[in-house]
Write a sequence for this structure.
């Protein structure tokens, strides 16, 4: 409940924030956005950063916009904003995911960027980020760079964000009138985080076959990952319920963990079930997106 | 109907008068209290379940600027006694429970050192600077294993982990032997964490010049605490004041005088300054009482028609590492109520209570009775299944009938009155039992698994005083004082200590009703032992049953006196006075009357202006002692669908028909049932405080311990029946625990009914999705 002593900085601009971070000794500063994970960790003294850099007031990092066929979500966009964003109507997966994430208090304060940057192995947004093939935009003292979602998560609680870099926003392809995406999740009963969470996107060709699918997985163990075995199996198929189910029967790239709430067998089962459910809804949405 | 019945506030849905302040965030809890010069107390706790303390070095912590003192268990043992245990009952092997561990720790979370510092930050930093070296010992947290000869022994003086053994009931051996059939099972009522929103906390303030000690405490029983603190500290009780400010929930876990709270008071005395101790949530999970933690081996002797002829339990009760105040009462209460709502001629429980390297257990909503209800209601389903009978049929056959009250059970409990069939019939009607059974068959054919669960519960509330009792919670009376001021408004002082029950509202209703006033004309004072001379506290569904009865009787006495005075002023016979809408009228001449305000003002006159022998002031104090426990009962029925792919159980319908006796405020009764159902469903499906083999708690934070949230719960269909109790003048039965008692067996029975076609015969709570899925896989294998 009482964190260790720390310094607190409130940069006035992104430039400022980057400069403050550049001045810090490596590993001593933490970036504070919504604070929904960092602050409890500090209160339990599991984390004790010497400096907190509060970027929460940088309005340039908030908000949703659209440019050149892509959607842009600012890192400080809250879960609650994503739950209600009219700009994201074509990707119902955002509202769907925000609606099963945390509780109203967390959704009001927690941020999209914070969730990705923290890379908690059971967080929900990483699955969606992977399934929609987002691109993370980072800013550091050496300028801007982009990282594709499939390269972003490097391990449990680790990402491609380098020391001194700030995740500023994420871009996604806009809807194309023949794609749909969905998220299906089993909540861990206490924390509400994913015991298994699967985001799936399906794009249909003109014949109604699966032109492409992407499946992002969280909660199973290790870093969030793409279930490429499912994606490959589905490629070019005319989808039926049994085809979707069969495609999820075995996901060799999963390496499930054992913990109090779910052992590896059970996590494997949840992955099968929720991958099937996410794909089924994604397919319905892709079909209904077709004019 | 009384001819002068005032507007009917009894049974009215009066909004809670407590709410506006609390909802606006204007509540004042212990942690809101700030006193000048107040120090902060922080406790270092054991990370080990069982260990010897080899070295305890507090020198670095003592040297930190801002630290006033650091104490170890050995330091404190120089001037403090062990904390009160097991209610001071005779014949109990109560091992010493030191304020802080002396040389040895026996559960994760046991206090090891205490820091007193100028602020909370310094106290917490100092805690990090204490160095402890432990020699870790083997631990045991499973009560069954704790009884084996090779188990590590917690208390060397006792020599084994057996806390106490006791048999309650009549002879069952012969009856079992003579039964047509014996059906056996084993049921566990798992260890859970009560988890109120507000953790524990205390502010202690010793004022040397006044010789006065005040303790603000997050407690449900300030008067019990005053008595215990005075005895423990050898401090004159008449100079000790305990105040329960707003209390953010307790559920039974806050009527124990805890080590940290006694320590706060003792250190305030020693240092002569005010000090505060506030429990962190992570401490709360380890150091505040856990609950339930009972298991039974059941043998039921039955006839083929489902009649239960004899019932025997071997009950193993997990005390945890030490006794808290009434830890030992839990299994006794379970045994006393083991026959539930049924007429069973032969019944007995053999209790074995066990010490384990786990947090001590103590009351939690439904203490002992939730366990008893779970065991008997699971047993009823087991009997039905073994005999191939409908679960409803078995219950109907054994239920105590309305004409059989008062009904003495083989375990010595007297059910005073009741109508169990009424609740059952109404529940089945509303649920459409037959229709739902058909629906179940239809869904099964389609590969969906719906289950129906029933619990017909009967238990007891509002305990009477324990004859010869010298222990902790042995006084069953409650006291209320009703006084009317010169403006005709009323002040009621009550001995219970409401902390969420809504008793301020119901008390105002009971009193206002007597005078034809509005609830807002009545102010209710509670929770401060300086303002309330005598009381016991809020626990065991007694606030309304016992405290409300004292209030009613006191209000009636004042009313009678006011009528006599009004008659005197109107110069008519008191029998001719009609009191309505705060006005006394002459029944013989409706034009003549006198307002309550006038009568109230006149009551302050000298005795010569009052009727012969009447003392000034409209005031009365009544102490009410119940003749017996009330019998509380109801029927809960639910439908649960299990997703066999994930094991998740979803409650489709939940119907609770409970008998409140006389319901003073149905909205508050329903609220009480809702809260209890949340906790009962939580226990059934989500909660469990388990340990690994080294005694490390596996669910020591709210990230792992699944306290139910609103989003986890179904819509509740709650209805009340009103069968007045015969043991108190209000006719109230006590409803605060009904939800927590009825829900676990109703939900578990439903899940197992859903899984029956898959071959799953037994599951222990919590029925988490993983546990259910695993059982389905094993049954299929």
């Amino acid at each position: 409940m009482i964190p260790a002593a720390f310094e607190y900085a409130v940069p006035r601009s992104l430039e400022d924030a980057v400069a403050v971070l550049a001045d810090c000794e490596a590993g001593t500063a933490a970036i504070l956005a919504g604070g929904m994970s960092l602050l409890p960790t500090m209160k339990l003294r599991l984390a004790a950063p010497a400096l907190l850099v509060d970027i929460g007031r940088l309005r340039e990092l908030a908000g949703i916009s659209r440019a050149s066929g892509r959607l842009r979500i600012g890192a400080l966009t809250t879960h609650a904003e994503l739950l209600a964003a009219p700009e994201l109507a074509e990707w119902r997966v955002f509202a769907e995911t925000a609606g099963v994430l945390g509780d109203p208090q967390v959704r009001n304060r927690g941020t999209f960027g914070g969730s990705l940057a923290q890379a908690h192995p059971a967080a929900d947004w990483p699955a969606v980020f992977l399934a929609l093939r987002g691109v993370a935009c980072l800013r550091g003292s050496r300028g801007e760079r982009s990282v594709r979602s499939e390269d972003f998560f490097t391990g449990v609680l680790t990402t491609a964000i380098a020391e001194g870099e700030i995740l500023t926003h994420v871009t996604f392809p806009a809807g194309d009138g023949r794609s749909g995406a969905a998220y299906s999740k089993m909540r861990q009963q206490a924390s509400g985080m994913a015991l298994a969470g699967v985001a799936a996107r399906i794009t249909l060709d003109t014949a109604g076959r699966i032109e492409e699918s992407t499946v992002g997985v969280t909660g199973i163990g290790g870093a969030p990952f793409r279930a490429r075995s499912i994606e490959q199996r589905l490629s070019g198929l005319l989808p039926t319920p049994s085809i979707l189910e069969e495609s999820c029967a075995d996901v060799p790239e999963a390496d499930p963990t054992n913990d109090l709430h779910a052992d590896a067998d059970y996590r494997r089962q949840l992955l099968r079930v929720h991958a099937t459910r996410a794909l089924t809804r994604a397919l319905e949405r892709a079909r209904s997106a077709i004019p | 109907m009384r001819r002068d019945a005032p507007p009917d506030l009894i049974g009215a849905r009066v909004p809670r008068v407590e709410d506006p302040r609390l909802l606006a965030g204007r509540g004042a809890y212990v942690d809101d209290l700030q006193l000048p010069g107040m120090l902060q107390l922080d406790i270092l706790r054991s990370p080990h379940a069982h260990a010897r303390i080899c070295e305890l070095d507090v020198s670095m912590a003592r040297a930190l600027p801002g630290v006033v003192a650091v104490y170890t268990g050995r330091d404190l043992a120089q001037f403090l006694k062990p904390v009160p245990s097991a209610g001071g009952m005779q014949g109990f092997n109560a091992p010493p429970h030191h304020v802080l561990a002396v040389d040895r720790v026996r559960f994760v979370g046991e206090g090891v050192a205490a820091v007193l510092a100028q602020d909370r930050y310094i106290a917490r930093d100092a805690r990090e600077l204490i160095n402890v070296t432990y020699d870790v010992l083997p631990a045991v947290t499973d009560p069954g294993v704790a009884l084996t000869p090779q188990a590590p022994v917690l208390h060397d003086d006792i020599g084994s982990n057996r806390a106490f053994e006791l048999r309650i009931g009549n002879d069952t051996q012969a009856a079992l032997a003579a039964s047509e059939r014996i059906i056996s099972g084993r049921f566990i009522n798992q260890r859970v964490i009560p988890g109120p929103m507000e953790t524990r906390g205390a502010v202690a303030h010793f004022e040397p010049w006044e010789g006065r000690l005040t303790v603000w405490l997050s407690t449900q029983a300030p008067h019990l605490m005053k008595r215990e603190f005075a005895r423990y500290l050898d401090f004159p009780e008449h100079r000790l004041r305990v105040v329960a400010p707003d209390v953010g929930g307790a559920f039974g876990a806050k009527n124990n005088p805890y080590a940290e709270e006694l320590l706060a008071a003792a250190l305030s005395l020693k240092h002569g300054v005010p000090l505060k101790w506030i429990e962190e949530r992570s401490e709360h999970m380890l150091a505040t009482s856990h609950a339930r933690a009972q298991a039974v081996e059941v043998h039921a002797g039955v006839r083929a028609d489902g009649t239960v002829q004899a019932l025997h339990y071997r009950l193993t009760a997990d005390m945890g590492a030490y006794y808290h105040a009434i830890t030992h009462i839990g299994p006794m209460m379970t045994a006393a109520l083991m026959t539930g709502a049924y007429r069973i001629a032969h019944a007995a429980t053999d209790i074995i209570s066990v010490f384990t390297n786990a947090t001590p257990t103590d009351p939690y909503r439904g203490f002992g009775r939730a366990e008893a209800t779970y065991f008997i209601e699971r047993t009823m389903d087991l009997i039905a299944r073994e005999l191939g009978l409908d679960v409803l049929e078995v219950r109907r056959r054994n239920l105590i009938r309305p004409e059989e009250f008062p009904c003495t059970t083989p375990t010595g409990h007297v059910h005073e009155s009741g109508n169990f069939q009424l609740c059952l019939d109404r529940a089945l009607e509303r649920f459409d039992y037959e229709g739902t059974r058909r629906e179940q068959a239809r869904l099964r054919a389609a590969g969906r698994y719906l289950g129906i669960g029933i619990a017909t519960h009967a238990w007891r509330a509002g305990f009477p005083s324990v004859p010869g009792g010298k222990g902790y919670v042995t006084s069953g009376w409650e006291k209320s004082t009703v006084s009317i001021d010169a403006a005709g408004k009323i002040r009621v002082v009550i001995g219970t200590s409401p902390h969420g029950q809504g008793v301020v509202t119901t008390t105002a209703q009971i009193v206002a009703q007597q005078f034809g006033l509005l609830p807002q004309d009545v102010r209710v004072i509670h929770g401060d032992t300086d303002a309330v001379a005598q009381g016991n506290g809020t626990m065991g569904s007694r606030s309304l049953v016992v405290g409300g009865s004292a209030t009613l009787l006191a209000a009636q006495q004042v009313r009678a006196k006011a009528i006599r005075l009004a008659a005197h002023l109107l110069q008519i016979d008191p029998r001719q006075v009609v009191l309505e809408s705060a006005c006394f009228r002459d029944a013989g001449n409706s034009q003549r009357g006198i307002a309550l305000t006038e009568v109230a003002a006149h009551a302050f006159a000298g005795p010569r202006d009052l009727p012969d022998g009447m003392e000034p002031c409209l005031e009365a104090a009544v102490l009410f002692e119940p003749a017996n426990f009330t019998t509380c009962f109801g029927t809960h029925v639910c439908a649960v669908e299990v997703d066999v792919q994930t094991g998740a159980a979803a409650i489709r319908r939940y119907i609770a028909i409970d008998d409140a006796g006389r319901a003073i405020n149905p909205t508050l009764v329903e609220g009480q049932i809702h809260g209890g159902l949340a906790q009962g469903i939580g226990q059934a499906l989500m909660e469990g405080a388990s340990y690994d083999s080294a005694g490390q708690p596996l669910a020591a934070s709210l990230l792992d311990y699944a306290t139910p949230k609103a989003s986890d719960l179904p819509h509740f269909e709650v209805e009340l029946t009103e069968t007045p109790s015969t043991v108190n003048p209000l006719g109230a039965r006590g409803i605060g625990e009904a939800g927590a008692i009825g829900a676990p067996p109703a939900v578990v029975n439903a899940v197992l009914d859903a899984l029956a076609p898959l071959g799953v015969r037994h599951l222990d709570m919590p029925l988490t999705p993983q546990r259910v899925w695993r059982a389905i896989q094993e049954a299929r294998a």
